[in-house]
Every structure is written in C-alpha cells, then in structure tokens.
Amino acid sequence: MTTLDSSKAGHHGDHGHHGGSYLTPKGGWLTTVIDWATTVDHKKIGVMYLVAVLFMFFLGGVAALVVRTELMTPVRTVEVQATDPATGKAMVDADGKPVMKSEIRGQWLGEMKAKIDGQELTSIDGGNNWYNRAFTLHGAIMVFMVIIPSIPASLGNFLIPLMLGAKDVAFPRLNLLSWYVYVTGSIFAVCSIVIGGVDTGWTFYTPYSTTTDAEYANVVLMVLGAFILGFSSILTGLNFVVTVHKLRAPGMGWFDMPLFIWAMYSTSIIQVLATPVIGITLLLLIFERMFKIGIFDPALGGDPVLYQHFFWFYSHPVVYVMILPAFGVISEIIPVHGHKKIFGYRAVAFASLGVALVSFLVWGHHMFASSGELAATVFSALTFLVAIPTAVKVFNWIATLYKSSIALTTPMWYALMFLFLFSIGGLTGLPLGTLATDLHLHDSYYVVAHFHYVMMGGTIITFVGGLHHWWPKMFGRMYNQFWANIGAFTVFIGFNVTFFTQFFLGTQGMPRRYASYIDDYQIYHQISTVGSYLLLVGFLIHLFVFLHSLVAGRKAPANPWGGLTLEWEATSPPDEHNFHHEPMVKHGPYDFETTVPPHWDPKDYPLPALPKHAH
Amino acid sequence: MSTLDTRSGLGNDVPLWKRYVAGHHWRNAEEEFDACTLGFWLFLATEVLLFAGLFCAYAILRFKYPDAFVNGSSYLDWRWGCVNTGVLLISSYTMAASIRMFQLDRQSTGKLLLAITFICGIGFLFVKGTFEYLPKLSGWFFFLDPALPHYLDFKNGEALGGLFVHIDGYGGKAPGQFFSYAFSSDPWEPLWWSVYYCATGIHALHVVIGMSLIAWCWVRARMGAYGPTHYTMVENTGLYWHLVDLIWIFLFPLLYLIH
Amino acid sequence: MIEILGKLSMTLAPTTLAAESQPTYSWWFRNYGATENATHSDAIFMNIWWISIGWFVFLMALMVYFVIRYRRRPGVPAPYSPSHNTTLEIAWTIFPCLFLVYMFLAGFHGYIEKMVAPGDSIEMNLTAKKWDWTITYPNGASSPERTVVGAAAKTQIGDATPGARPIPIFYVPGDTPIKFNMVSQDVMHSFWVPDFRVKMDIFPNRYTTYWFEAKGPDEKSMTLKDSTGKDVLTAQGQKVHYNDHYIFCAEYCGDQHSEMWGIIRVVPRAFYASKIEEWNIEGKTPEEIGKLVYQSQGCSACHTVDGAKGAAPTWKDLFGNTVPTNVGPVLADENYIREAIYTPAAKIHEGYPSNMPVFTTAQIDERRMQGLIAYMKSISSKAPKSDAAAPAADTKDASKK
Amino acid sequence: MSNAHAPSASHGFDELDPHGAGKHTTHSHHIVSGVTLLGILGILLMFTALTVGLAQGEKWVMSYFSIELPRWVNVAVAMSIATVKATLVLMYFMLLRYSNPINTIVFLVCLLAFALFLFFTGLDLGNRGNIDPVKATAIQAGGVGGIKAGWSKDAPIIDKATVVYWRERKLNEVGPEKFAKMKAAFGHSHAAHASHGPAGPTGNAAHVPAGLTPGLFDAAAPAAHDAHGGSGH
Asked: How far apart are CA D102 and CA A353, in angstroms?
C-alpha cells in the first residue's frame, strides 16, 4: 500500500503533447454530453456501461435490503396499510387505527389492483404481494441488468481493445447501439416496476407468469425488457468474438493473449449461442400471456416443463457468462499483484473454453425435482464435469501465489477474497449436483446461499476488485487504498454473515421465496439481515472512496501495479485512440521474470528485483 | 460502413465504392470485410438458435399430439407452400447473382436483381397473407382465391365491392384465445395453430426485415456504393436473405407435408 | 443404463465413507430425518461436506501460507518458480474426479431410493391448488382437520405465527410405505417435507409421485389431545402418540406461497384406520357429509360459515338469498350453488375475485354436492325449513338404497 | 490521428482491381460463376419437387396398399432432403465453400448447440409420462378461471376444451344439418385414417387428400371434394 504513495506518480501518464485523454471534455457541457451520447469509443461506452450497471446495482441492492428487512421476523416486519377495494381508501378500524394487510390476510383484495382498476380483481393480496415483487425485482435486476453486463460490458468494453493493442472493438457503432439497447431494456423493466411490479420471480415460470395479474401489462413489460436486454448481450458478445479474432496486435498469437481475453472470448461465445434461445422463450412467453397460445400452458395442452428447458438452456450457460469474466479478472489480478507468471497458462485458457462447452450440457440440474428420472441422471453426471475446469483454475491461481511476490493491494485483497468465497460457492454446489441431496436442497435457502456465493462472492466481488485494479487506468486517478481495504473487509465480513447462515436455513427446511416462516429459523434470518446491512456499509465506503478519488485522487501513473499486458502501455487515462503507435507484442502477458514493465519508474512503485538471470 | 466521407481524398467523379475507406481501427478493407462477414455469421448463428426454440417446441408438441399436427396441417395447401418455396429459392438465386454483379461492377444488372429479390419477397408475403393467413384467421377470402368457389354455399358477407368474400365458419383458425373454429377433429388443434402462427409469423417478420435491408441496399446501390472492392452490405444482406430461405426450407415440409 | 448405474452405485457408493448404521445428525439438520431415506441422504450430504471441508481447508491453508510467506517486501527479490508442470496439472485434474464419481453414484443411489416407491405402498391422491393441499385416502375420505399454527400449544415441530390461516393436517400410518399421486389444479407447486428430505414438483395436467415410509411414533412422541386439552384415547383406552412433520410448498406459486403449509401427522396404523373410517362419508346424513366436504376440500380456507368476512362470500345465510353477481342479481338456489362449484367463472359474486378453483365431479360427486347444499341450507335462515327437509330426506333414503 | 488513416487508405486502393478480383490472395472475394448459381437453383427447385413428390407418393402408397408407414419415415425423408437443400444454399449461395473456414466453424458450432438443445429437451420430455389429456378441462389457467375468448371485457369465458366449446357453439348457431355440411366442406380430417388402425371401409376412395384446399388450381372440378371425409360420410 505504501508503495503507491509516491507523490511523483503519474508523470508517465502525462503525455500532453499527444492530445487529450479520452476523458478530456470536447467543449462546453452540452457538447460534452452530445459527444458522450454519440461516441463510438469503446472506452467511453465502457464507462457508460459502468455507470448504468452501478445504478441498476443500487436499485437491485435496495430491493435486496427490503427483502432482508422483511425477513427479520417470521411475520410481517414491513407493514403495509390495507386498502378497502370497495372504496379505494386506506382501511382503518372502528377506533381509527390503521389496519395492516397482515391483519386481514386473505380477506381483502390488493391495494395495487384496486387503485388501477376497481373492476376485475384477479389475485388476493394477503400482504405478500409487495414482498414477492421485491424479490422478483431484486432477482431480475441483478441477473439481467447487473451481473450479466457487469464485467463484460463495462470492464470488457474498456479493456479488450486495449489488451489486444487495437484502436477499438470490431464494430464500434454496434457497440454504442448495444448500450442504448441495454438502457432501453432497463427502462422497460423499470417501467414495469413503476406501474406495479412483477411477482413472478426472475425465472418467469409458467403457468404462473402467464396468468398472474392477468389484466395488467407489468409482466409483459418486464419480459420485453429482458428480451431487449438479450439483444444488447448478443451484440456485445458478437463484437468481442470478432475483435479477438481480427484485431489482435501484430505479434500476438492466441496464446499470447491475456487470460482475461480468453475468459471474455469464452463468455462471448456463450452469449452468442445461448441468448437467442431466451429471446424466443421470452417471445413465446409474451405470446402466451397476450394470446394464450398454450405452448407452455398445461390447461391448453402445453408443457410447463418445456418452458423450464427453454429457460435453463439459456439461464444455465448464462451463469458462466456471469462467472467466466470474473475468472478472467482474477487471472489478471493475481499475476500482476503477485508479480509472477500465471501457473499453467494453457490450462487456464482451455479451462475457460471447457467451461463454456460444458455449460451447454448441464442445464437440467435446475429441474431435478420435477421428476424426469432419465434426464436427471444424465444431467447429474454431466453437472459434475463443470467441477473439473473450475477446480483446475482455482489450483492454478493458488499455484501462482507460490513463490510470488504478493503486494497486498486492494485488488489483491479482492482476489484472495474471491478465492475464499468462490471455493465455498463451488464446493457447496456439489450437494446440489448430487441427485439424492438435491431433492432436499432444491428451491431452499441452501440454493440461495450457494448461488449468492458464486454470483456475488464470485462475480460482484471480482467486479469490484477489477474496478479497483483498472480504476487508475480508466480514470487516471489513484484512490485511497486504506479506506478501500476497509471497505473490502466490510464487504467480505458482511457477505459471509449474510449468506453463510442461509446454508443452515436451507438444510433445515426454509424454502426460498417465503415471506413468513416458522419461528425456529428466525435467529438465522436475523443474523443474515444484519450481515446485509454490513454489506451496504461496505459498498457505501467503496462509493465514497471512488467519489473521493474522482474529485481529489492523486494522478495515476500509466502503470501503477507493474502490469505487462498492453493496456498498461497506454497512458492513464488512455488517449482517444488508445496508443500513440500501434503496439508490437514482444513479450508474453505474464513474463515478469524477464521483462521490465512498461513505464516503470522505481520511484512510482517498488517491484521485487528481477532475478539475476534476467539481466 | 462509412458513407459520403471524404477520407479517401478522391473527388466526386469517382464512384462511391472506389472512395470507400475502411474504419480507422482496421488495417485495411480486406480485414474489415472479413470481420464483417464473421460478425454476420455469428449473428446468423443467433438467428438459427432463435428458430431452434420454435423447432424444439414443434418437435415436442408434435411428439405429444401427432394427430393434432396432422389434422392441422391438412388445412394448409402444400401447393401454396410449394409456390412460396419456389419464390424464395428464386429470390435467393437473384440475391446471390446480384452480389456477383456488384463484384463484377455490373451495376444496373445488380440493382435489377436486387429489385427482383425484393419483389419475390412481396410475392411471398402476398401469398402468405392473402391465401393463407387471411381466410384462416377471419374467413375472408380474396375473390381470386381458387378455393373460394367451393365454399360459396356458406357465403355470408362481402367487402370492398366483392374484392373480399366472407365464408361463414371457415375462419377462426387463430392462435390461442382467438381460436374459434368449430370443425376441428382433434382437441389439441389450437396448439398446432399456435405453433404454425409463431413459426411462420416470426419467419415472415424476418422476410420483412430482409426486404428492408434489400431496399436499403438498392438505395445505396443507386448511389454507387457497391463495387468490386466494397460490397460488404450487399454480401451480408444476401447472407441474411439466404438464412430466411434456409429456415423456410425446413419449415415447408414440417408444416405442409406431414401426414 | 439406469440398471447398470444402479448396480454400480450399490457396489461402490453407499457405505464407502459414511457409517450408515448411525444416523447422521449435525447442526446442519434439525433432526435425524423421519425416514430411512432421509437418514441416508443426510449421510451422503455429510460425506460431501467433509470432503469439501478437506479441500477447502487444504486450499485456504495453502493460500494463507503463500500470502504470508511470499508477501512483497522492499528489496527482496521474488523467488520465481516454474510456471508450468504437466504432471502436476494432469494429476490435479484427474484426482478430484474420483470424488466426483463417488458423489454421482452415491447421489444416484439415494435418488432411486427416494424416487421408486415399494410395490406395497398405500396409494393416496394429493391435490395442490393455490394455496392449499388435499389428500384423498384410499377409502375416498379426506382429512377435515386443520390447525392454526401458532394459536395452538407449542408443537414438537416448532412454533410459528404466520397468521390466522388454518393449515391442513394429514394423518398417515407410521412404518408403512405411502405413495402420493400428486397433481395440481392451477400453477406448479412443490411438495416438500423437510423431515423426509424429499421434494417433488407438482404439475397441472401431469401426475408425479412422492413416497415415504415415516418412522412410527414411539413412547417419546407427543400424545394427541383434543380441543379441550384432554388426551385422545383409542378404542382400547390407550393414549395416541404422534409425530408431526411440516409440509412446505417449495415452488413459487403466488401471494400466499409463503403460507402454503401443511402437517403430516404420523400416527399408529390402527389409529389411522379409525381416523379415516371416521371421515368416511358412508352412513352419514347429507348435512354431515356437507360439513366434511366443507372442511376437507378446502372450502373453509375462504368461505366462512359464521358470517365473518373471508376471501370469498360467507355461507352463512347464503342459500335462498339473492346474490349480486357480474351478470346481475341471482337467487342462490341449488342450481346456482352447483354451477358455482363446477363452473365458478360463470357468475362472479360482486366484490370478490374470480379465483375460486374449479371442482370436478371426481372431487365432488353427486352425493357430496347434495351434502354441501344440505349443509348450506342448514346454516341459512332463508332456506325454507320445510322444503329443505324434504330433499335432504330423499338423499338420505337414496344413500341407504 | 489523421496519419493513421493514410496507410490503410492507400493499402485499400493499391489492391483495387475490378476485373481480377478472383485473383485476390484472400478468400473473401471469390466470385461464383453464374452457371454454378443457376445450376444450384435448378437443383434446389428439383429437390423441392422431389420432397413434395415423395410426400404425396408415400401417402399414395399408404392408401393404395392400405398399410401404415411409421410416422418417422415421413419426417426423416423430408428432413433429409431439406438438409441437402440447406447444405447447397449454405455452400454456394452463402459462399461457405469459398469463404474463411471460421465462418463454417461458427455455423457448425451453432448447429451443435441446436442439437444439444433438441437432444436433451427431447430426452427429458420424451421420457416423462405424457400429459394427461383427461385432466385438461379440470385445470384452470393459473387459477383465475377459464380462458377468455379474446381481449374484450365481454368476451365469453371458455371453461372447457376450446375445440369442444366452439363446436357446440357453432352447432347451436347453425343447427346440426348445416353444421354437418360445413364440416364436410371445411374439414379435411384424416387423422382417423392416419393413426387409428387401417384405412376406412371404403379404402382409398374415402381417403381425404390431405393438404389440398379443394379446387385450388382445378376450379373446373369442384364436385370431387364433396366426397371427401368428414362427419357427413
């Protein structure tokens, strides 16, 4: 940490004579806004994605806190006053005291419905409706609008051309389009929330999703939003695949690419191949809702399990769209901050591709409890295959730490946390792939805890870690590492407190998506809720650290951590066209033993001495 | 890619395609073309997988309700399907030939072939809409429909001065909750119609998108944008149009020729 | 293939690591599991758990050691090491596979145990609907017993205060294999008894099965008491012991998904037999039949019989009154009630949602329907008593023939 | 960064060679000969005729010899021909034969994903108990009552199998006699023949020409279709 406190840092990044960085405003604020809104620069688009994703993360996080708060007590914690559907007024009892929904559970109709249209009321609101909407909101936003685009669209967009030594992604205008598509999809989803929300769960399982709130368009809007977001995902993935194929710098072979690129490449392949299936699924779901076409509706001869196959053919591979980029980020952070060549480069690279392939073979493990014995057996066997490449990656990362030189910077702390959390997430997945135990654990809090360990402990933690790693490159400012570390530890502790307890809830019998539960579970829920508040505090600390860095951060040197990949050859922040000269690749991305990092100034940051033979 | 830019430094007397300059991040136009084609193939892959869902739904439901599918299919006339297959195949040929013309700098033939392709698209949609969708959905027949004379016993309305004739009881083979056909012989026939309209409807949507692309190509071709060294847009439009054809090649036997 | 796998798993998986004879109980679970399959499944879970613990501790210990040992110190050169070792990499790719093979086979073994019901199981039909369960016993009876969790004394399965909605209690015999044929009437549900460690999704339009052989109650189990707190005694004058197990719906199904609970009450076989005989409609008056149907078919979840406001119109004084519906006022006579049960969407009571489930003639046959009508008449002041008596008597006669 | 454009622009122009594009060293500018394209079109049209012919022929064989061919024959024949046609389109119209092999790989990978999707979904759903049609009318759509016929507020609610509902409604509207006539005219049902046992008593005379709208292209002979199946016979 102290290594970076040199006040002279940053002079390498200051190449004023080459024209401004990509962040330099083009003129007045209006010009600047128009410039950003119409930019085809991958860096600006990456930053725009970052802002959008973080905003959605905030929304989804609020929903999560609401859910956790509700679960503090076995009954209603957050009370909602009931509405008399006949009069549309808030209900009071004879003494003028407000009547809460929980008191009249199952007796009166939904406040929301009554407000919109007093005519035909289609579902009873026993007071759980808003809770169901909150967890659906949390799930849908976090999956479709945060985790899927988090690393690929923000860090990926920013870094892939830089790491490849290219001036831009293959199709810059398509890239901008994909951002607008993302925003459009998000607006649809948010609209659906504003006009009343969706209570289907993020999985939109039929026939519930096609019939709930039958008179209202909320579900259609939300599904349409997810459908549109799919296009954004496809365009991004397609762009990256072509970029990796066609725009590598001279001298960069496939095995000279940084592992982040390998991970992003695998991710993009999954995005391209899986997303269209969710497209048609959601389209058919919309038709099902609007026209009752019956393909998924058992009352009309369709098959709800068919919907599940459609849905999970996308949504399982997409789990790897979420976690593979995180693997890529870790494969960058550990070698750079450990200043050591990654152990088993090819194994890690092929493991990425292997995960991408296997991801298309295992979706059925989301349906073990729906009774298809043959398919369940086959899918269970295939599911265990996923464990192999992921385990290989973890072994490689830990082997990389061996005889390295570990600088305990904030990104490195995050990488270590990732190893801890992802190991738990991965290992707790084993009983879920095991048929006998899954029949008990499926759809319980055990599953909730497991996928939060993977999705949040894996992806979000790494996203924040990666953000800390490339923040100086993206914005040309250093941040306060002391407070960033405090934030990281708070997040780590908060995360474990929140989610480890949920494993016990699950094994003991707490089903997911429950607003009320038997009293025995309360202590676990309370611990979990306290943990979630701690998580909030941790993220707020990060927010302030970043804001402080933007306003008052020290200027960042071009290469603050001593990385060897090409993005560190650019200035911090990079020029509009990334590099002054097309970079030639003369060393591997992790050849720390033989190469002095570009722009290295020992006064900026001390690196371990090179071994003797390198000189 | 770029349009009326002046980056090449050549004057307006030189055709637009000769003035084309690759995007700034490409080393040369060759690489850009290669990348665009690869990108477009990836996009085509997503299109195929979009239809994969429909084919999968078709397979599962046909496996479950074979009779409903056979019955439902019997309402479709394979000869209209055949005509449309021919139309699409011919249009695919004209599209491919058009690209060839632009590669050889035979601009006017290229444009003509593009126009023919477009007209074939219209023909496809016309047959689909007038002779298949319209009567089946609503019972309204186009007066030239060869099947019409056989149903005149049940005629109960006319519109637009006899241009369209309504046949009582023929219509209503609509998807889902709009289904109201009274003479089905299998309880699951509405499902067949759902699959039929989803598959052909989404395919027709792709025809429309393809036609828009072709129209755009035609407009640009009039401006002289395509020639031997630069025809990326026509090439990719062609790929898209062939994909539309490709999907139909599978839809035709699956929908029209089952028994 | 299934057979081969089955043999393989029998020989390799079940007892290699776990002490199967000992019930595995840890802080992971609330109890030992109420069936043998549950205990077995817990053993598999604990095996995987200890394997995972082993790997986790090993990896984290390495990581922590490396971080401390190789932390960056000024002026200290990095002790570089090779970045590649084929033997090691192949070894650590293959070695974990052994554990995975064990897990798959053990899981498969336990899965088949949980999925395949013994041939001599007692078959019962279970119907799920928003947000209630119904079980039909082999003799056609259904359990009319419900309890308000939290209102009663603390039970052995943990107290809860989720609200006033009563949840059904299903009596099943202990130490007897029981198989449910399950189907849903509306959306998907999932039948989960955590103490049995199995859940199974319930679909509309497709039957799934669920089987268990619950360990019977013993002397340490709770004793059954009636509403006044007195011990329930068998015909032989013995106290009745029972074990309760929660049922949860585990597939999200809407607003009151969170309260779609039930209780499986495991009682001795003889007591179970007497219970379902008690609920049998044979030899009962139409009014009694109606009351049983009212309790067992879930009517009581929404309709009250004392005039209190519920999620649906009360039955108190319903019969013979004029009902405001969406198609105008309708006289609530026999035909109206019949239609409202078999085709609820036909006429919808003003001010109430159209969410009454459809009942089929298989669920409510003619006798039960007449019973319901008789029961409604008996609690309606509007029903002309002289008229009400006549058809009821007829039905009684009919049932005797 | 204007200097960045210069090399690429000049590079693009050096290679300008309208009449010798085929001589380019890269694979992307192959020009397929006009004869090949026309030939492919011919083959495609021929295969279209073939697939129709085989389908009709199969039907004729089934009715003439009063035999049942398994359903997969029909599908397998049609799909094989469609695959050949698709391959031709891909290779010659879409130029996969001449373009960068990576494009072919992309397409094959996509087909692999398609195959996996179809295979595993079929593996599961094909091996589960079939949906039980008997229950169809007892199940409500999501528990909110029957399905509305259309969107309008006063649309009727269908509380039984859709097909039955509309049949009964029409029967009430037009009366049994006219209903029978209409059914004879509109319905081409031949499922009874195709799947339930051998051909009807009248052999191929009663066999409905499935897939033919009566009178299409042969308006001169409208009477023939009156003999075709349906409840009138």
From this structure: 17
Last residue of a domain, one of D125, D151, D183: D125
Q: Considering the domain boundaries, does residue D130 fall inside one?
A: no
Residues C106 and C163 in one domain: no
Tally of structural domains, chain C: 3
Q: Per the domain annotation, does C277 fall within a domain?
A: no
| Cα(A174)–Cα(A45) distance, integer angstroms | 11
pLDDT tens per residue, range A356-379: 999 999 999 999 998 688 889 999
Q: What is the pLDDT of residues A548-579, one digit of tens each?
A: 999 999 999 988 888 999 999 998 899 888 88
Total domains in chain A come to 3
List chain A residues with CB under 8 Å of B173: none
How far is the alpha carbon of C363 from chain D, nearest alpha carbon, in Å? 10
By DSSP bridging, strand C167-173 and strand D157-158 are: unpaired
CB count within 10 Å of CB D212 equals 20
Q: How far apart are CA A540 and CA A201, in angstroms?
A: 27
At the second CATH level, the architecture of B44-139+187-256 is Up-down Bundle (1.20)
Percentage of chain C lying above the pLDDT 70 cut: 83
Peptide bond into C131 cis (omega under 30): yes
A364 lies within 8 A of chain D by CB: yes
Assess whether pLDDT exceeds 90 at residue B150: no
Per-residue pLDDT of B168-205, as tens digits, reads 888 889 888 888 898 888 888 889 999 999 999 999 99
Of the three residues D125, D152, D185, the one that is the final residue of a domain is D125
Decide which of A60 and A610 is more confident. Answer: A60
pLDDT of residue C343: 77
Contact criterion met (CB below 8 Å) for C320 and C387: no
**Contact call for residues B49 and D106 (beta carbons, < 8 A):** no
Q: Which residue range is the domain that position C155 belongs to?
A: 122-269
Please name the residue of chain A whose CA is at the shortest distance from the CA of residue D141: A299
Q: Give the number of C-D residue pairs with CB atoms closer than 8 Å.
A: 52
At residue A90, the 3 state secondary structure works out as strand
pLDDT recorded at residue A114: 34
d(CA B47, nearest CA chain A) in Å:
7
Q: Please determine, for residue A534, whether its predicted confidence score (pLDDT) is greater than 90.
A: yes
The CATH number of the domain where C229 resides is what? 2.60.40.420
**pTM of the entire structure?**
0.85
Contact across the interface for B47 and A276, Cβ inside 8 Å: yes
| Residues A496 and A485 placed together within one structural domain of the fold | yes
Assess whether pLDDT exceeds 80 at residue A221. Answer: yes
Touching partners of C (3+ C-beta pairs < 8 Å): A, D
Question: In sequence order, what are the beta bridge partners of C202?
Answer: C189
Residue D187 in domain: yes
Q: Do A145 and A260 belong together in one domain?
A: yes
For residue A174, the distance in angstroms to the closest alpha carbon of chain C comes to 39
